[in-house]
Binding protein dependent transport system permease
Amino acid sequence: MAEMNLAPETGSSATSPGVSDSWLRRNRQALAPWLFLAPGVIFFLFYVIFPILQSFNLSFYRWDGLGDPQFIGMENYRELMDDRAFEVSLWNNLKWLLLYLLAIPAGLFIALFLNQTVTGIRLYKSLFFFPFVISQVVVGLVFSWFYDPTFGLLNQVLAWVGLGPINVLGDPTLVTYGIIIAGLWPQTAYCMILYLTGLNAVDPEQVEAARLDGAKGAKMLWYVIIPQLRPATFVAFVVTIIGALRSFDLISIMTNGGPFGSSRVLSFYMFEKALSEYGFRMGYGAAIAVVLFLIMLCFIAYFLWSMYQDDKGAR
């Protein structure tokens, strides 16, 4: 009787691994992508999504980073409305947004020039590619020397044409534009790389058909080349807008927010309020970060929606 009672148990336990193995075999193709995506998704959740949610939560508190947080509701956001420094930073960010977009057409035209078979084209590509591989710290230092009112190249050139010296980084009305020009140098190189990659994917048959129809010059570029560069343009827009809104390193290297706070942007002002000598106001810095994130989200959502509508219309 004991052997008869043990037999069913042994048989049932022996069949369970077979059932699970067969389930894994049947669903192997469906599970494989999720297994490969899992590490990236986990990192994205912990290092992107969770900090964003934490910043939203922290913006409703008064906290110095050490003591107990004190819930104050929307008080940090109300203070932002009357903060003159926040207003200057927001206005400077809008300047960065508008002028930084010049990197996209500049990168396109440089890519069109480099996408030719001419003597020395490899040397030209290397020279235009060079700003992309150097760090923002080096760019900031180079342009600080370039703008220097005593020995800078800019003022030497102005002296040759009979113009007086200009202290770009010391003039509150010019300093933001000077830093933006410095930022455009590597950003244009990045957009150029995107468009060079996109030009390699342009359909030569469409170009040839357009030539047979008499299209050339600006018409060829506008109606044939640029529509095929839409994915590269989308990436260039998103990356350029994000770069303009989170501009921090050039400002820190070239002016440290000066003179008199006139070159601050939201990301730099957030750092000053949360982590600098202005009082370690973590909640107030988080409120500035939330405003910056929402501005960035609006632009990215608009471009994603536009791209979705274009793809939907193409179908």
Notes: The beta strands are 61-62, 70-71.
